[in-house]
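seq as requested:
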Amino acid sequence: MNAAARLDLASMKYYSAMEMQFLGSTGVVSRTGYTGEDGFELVMPSVDAERMWLTLLEHGANYGIVPAGLGSRDTLRMESAMPLYGHELNETIDPLTAGLEFAVKFNKPDYPGKAALESIKSQGLKMARVGLLLEGRRIAREESPVQINGQEVGKITSGTFSPTLQKVIAMAYVPVASSSLGTVVQVSLRGTLVPATIAALPFYKRNAST
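struct tokens:
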């Protein structure tokens, strides 16, 4: 992308953005992504999107650049434990329970939801987002029940097979009291109880030097 846009992208800081001129079009490039890997995202006028896409593929051919689909992105975001709205996030799951307190600023002036979040924090969290390593090869789908000693304690929010770990992984919400690393649970997959172990999140973290 450096060559195509004539930009020094290596000097950009993570989570920063800047305006760019690219093939006669003005857009925005940001050093962000949803895969856990280092990368960049482009925002541009829709009329220029196809031309830019083809140019990037052409310039990237010598680097082995190929298109990747939504399934690839979803697998990567799960390995990196990135929550997805509609799965790990929704109208009933607050950012503290989701493990996103780093994105919540309590020292800011009042904003919608601040009082509710302060109340949740002061009372203590009841549920926690956890990672699961499942035995076998069956994928745990969203809403699959999570059990401990025969009692349902939570639900799967996302699950997939991890090519990096060569294991079936999943994320779920369980009570904080049952969220310790190494805790063994059972996931009900169409009536079959599959053993799983609570594991640290993220399942995979990129080496910052690569």
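The longest strand covers residues 151-162.
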